[in-house]
Amino acid sequence: MPDQLKLYGADWCPDCRRAKAYLDQHGIDYQFIDVDLDKKATALVEKINSGKRIIPTLTLHGKSYTNPDNAALDEILGINPTGVVVMYGADWCPDCRRAKRYLRDAQVRFQYIEVDQHEWAAELVEKINKGKRIIPTILIDGQPHTNPDNDTLRQLLKLDEEKPQKSYDVIIIGGGAAGLTTAIYAQRDRFDSLILEKKNIGGNAWLTEKIENYPGFTNISGPDLMDKMEEQARTYGAEIITGVEVTGIEPGEHCFTVRTKGDAYQGRSIVIATGSTYRMLGIPGEQELIGSGVHFCATCDGAFYRDREIIVIGGGNSALEEGIFLAGFTKKVHLVHRSEAFSADSIYTEKLAGMQDKIATYLDTTPVRFVSDKAGKFKGLEVKDNATGKEKLIEADGAFVFIGLLPNTQPFKDLLDLNERGFIATQGLAQTSIPGIFAAGDVREGAIAQVAAATGEGVLASYGVKAYLKG
Ligand SMILES: Cc1cc2nc3c(=O)[nH]c(=O)nc-3n(C[C@H](O)[C@H](O)[C@H](O)COP(=O)(O)OP(=O)(O)OC[C@H]3O[C@@H](n4cnc5c(N)ncnc54)[C@H](O)[C@@H]3O)c2cc1C
């Protein structure tokens, strides 16, 4: 029996949802095993990952893969824009070598299965070929092809079709709330738009369990809200390509060339909407508890902790500002900072000094690990006193990490003016330092880092694009 692809994960885990959505999108058959409901599965995941409970973990044909991103899934499973390719062959077979080389030269991803190593694979090949063991046997989107020559492969995979050298009115880099909104507005203005997205459409909001502050929805899950935005952008005709990471922009005489790993796209204008990444502590338990005990946004998730006890981690302006804000309605805040003094401005440290009844401070204290109970429910944070080396558990109902935001501006740092923290500086209608390139959402200097704000910035950028293209 062929091995079925197994995805070990949990419903609350954003990357599990991302991987499941990607497999579903490409019609890949897999079995989902919820590690929260299956102790054996948890033990297996921990064994694969040297004691760490990292999900999603995937297994296939005796190999395991820890939290592969969508590009890695493409490689593992042979996912291409023209189809999913699986080749059954053997190392000693000349035609298999020929076909493998041809596909590699044509940059076609394929899953390769040695029939000599898997009895089930040999049986499958014999079944396909009416009892004969003919290799290579190649499945393209599940359809078998017995020892196809290079010409047949070229036709089947549409390799000789010239890639359209289409030029877009606007290329939007990043498919989060800001990018999708720009596309909706640009399409309605009759501008051809293309979204290039590194992972999956939806951005950070897609990773959010519950959104309670997006106007029009008292409570909506992040994936539901972002799926609606994606549907709206597609309805108006926006083109969307996922799994492509933009590596740079080259300004030309009449248009910009946007480079990705392996491809290039032409656009008359560009909107950068690549968002930012919350800095994480990188300690055990953090990844597993994101969204269910560990949070990075007080405005978004603080309300879940009304009259409850929480831990805030960080010592800069945002940690103190958010800690003071959270202390306004929670029962108690435990503020943990690894240095001997807070680095926040005195306006915050002075306020903090007057709130000792609500905020307990732990300076010179390093977070060690987040702790959950047997049911996976958040229990607290284990910390180490730097002076004594002693460790202790601070028990609470949840924790908020405020140790900074990292803008996703690496590919643009040599091209555009960025501020000292790496965010893109803009003026007017979201205009960057280069005319024709705009920035919207969390990647922009001064952004508010909320979904509603990001959609507003998408509107602003679309107006900038309109003025630029018509000007
Ligand atoms: C855990 C969490 C909870 C949150 N909860 C809420 C909430 O309840 N309410 C609220 O209003 N806000 C919430 N936020 C904030 C909100 O998600 C963001 O403000 C919003 O998503 C910003 O949208 P954006 O489009 O600017 O960026 P993002 O959503 O970050 O989208 C940027 C996109 O660009 C892609 N990208 C990055 N680099 C590249 C590249 N080089 N090439 C191609 N694509 C690239 C990324 O993969 C991503 O999909 C939360 C954020 C987090 C992390």
Automatic annotation (TrEMBL):
<dbReference type="InterPro" id="IPR023753">
    <property type="entry name" value="FAD/NAD-binding_dom"/>
</dbReference>
<dbReference type="InterPro" id="IPR002109">
    <property type="entry name" value="Glutaredoxin"/>
</dbReference>
<feature type="domain" description="Glutaredoxin">
    <location>
        <begin position="6"/>
        <end position="63"/>
    </location>
</feature>
<keyword id="KW-0560">Oxidoreductase</keyword>
<keyword id="KW-0274">FAD</keyword>
<dbReference type="GO" id="GO:0016668">
    <property type="term" value="F:oxidoreductase activity, acting on a sulfur group of donors, NAD(P) as acceptor"/>
</dbReference>
<keyword id="KW-1015">Disulfide bond</keyword>
<dbReference type="InterPro" id="IPR008255">
    <property type="entry name" value="Pyr_nucl-diS_OxRdtase_2_AS"/>
</dbReference>
<dbReference type="Pfam" id="PF07992">
    <property type="entry name" value="Pyr_redox_2"/>
</dbReference>
<dbReference type="InterPro" id="IPR050097">
    <property type="entry name" value="Ferredoxin-NADP_redctase_2"/>
</dbReference>
<protein>
    <submittedName>
        <fullName>FAD-dependent oxidoreductase</fullName>
    </submittedName>
</protein>
<dbReference type="InterPro" id="IPR036188">
    <property type="entry name" value="FAD/NAD-bd_sf"/>
</dbReference>
<feature type="domain" description="Glutaredoxin">
    <location>
        <begin position="85"/>
        <end position="143"/>
    </location>
</feature>
<dbReference type="Pfam" id="PF00462">
    <property type="entry name" value="Glutaredoxin"/>
</dbReference>
<keyword id="KW-0676">Redox-active center</keyword>
<comment type="similarity">
    <text>Belongs to the class-II pyridine nucleotide-disulfide oxidoreductase family.</text>
</comment>
<feature type="domain" description="FAD/NAD(P)-binding">
    <location>
        <begin position="168"/>
        <end position="458"/>
    </location>
</feature>
<keyword id="KW-0285">Flavoprotein</keyword>
<dbReference type="InterPro" id="IPR036249">
    <property type="entry name" value="Thioredoxin-like_sf"/>
</dbReference>
